[in-house]
Amino acid sequence: MEVFKEAWYSIDLEAKGSINAEDLAVYMRKNNYEEAFVKKWMAIFDQDNSGTIELEEYCEVLGLNEKEMMEETRLRAKATGMPEGVEYIAGDMSEERQIDIARLCIEALEKHSSLKEVPKWVKLEADKQFDRVWHVLAIRGQFWCYFGFEPETSYVFRYKRNVFIIWKTPRN
């Protein structure tokens, strides 16, 4: 099973929790595998024929612990640094947390077709992963803002045509 774990870690470099045929093709070329590799993996692991292999599906087929796999995937992804395309604008959050937050926002953009769903998903995930209470704005176009926040928890960044403003306020 270690070979399959390592394969997942090598393919899901951004810790998205899912991989697609394009990701598999890159991995296939990198490892000089036959062209049939992508089709075989999609047939075996894409249980719902969605065009993506979710980590849940992958673990279910192989009998692996999904939570452990995701934790390890995130640890390895952190070692690769900030996701490509993320442009720092402002903030006082640690670089490690910036990477975590940027990855959450990118994952939300990939999961949701509507930008209006993204802040809610990011906020709920941030509350779960980094304790409460997080606030998230996803913006396209001009904006101005002013807000108070808990020290070392604000981050403003651009990813593609979206700007994200994220901060945490104390519970009290």
Automatic annotation (TrEMBL):
EF-hand domain location, by residue?
Answer: 33-68
Kindly give the Pfam families that the UniProt entry links to this protein.
Dynein_light (PF01221), EF-hand_7 (PF13499)
What's in the keyword line of the UniProt record? Calcium
GO cellular component terms, A-Z = dynein complex
Which molecular function GO terms apply here?
A: calcium ion binding
> Which domain of life does this protein belong to?
Eukaryota
The record's InterPro entries line, in alphabetical order, gives: DLC_sf, Dynein_light_chain_typ-1/2, EF-hand-dom_pair, EF_Hand_1_Ca_BS, EF_hand_dom
A GO biological process this protein is involved in? Answer: microtubule-based process
Name of this chain's protein = EF-hand domain-containing protein
Q: Which organism is it from?
A: Macrostomum lignano
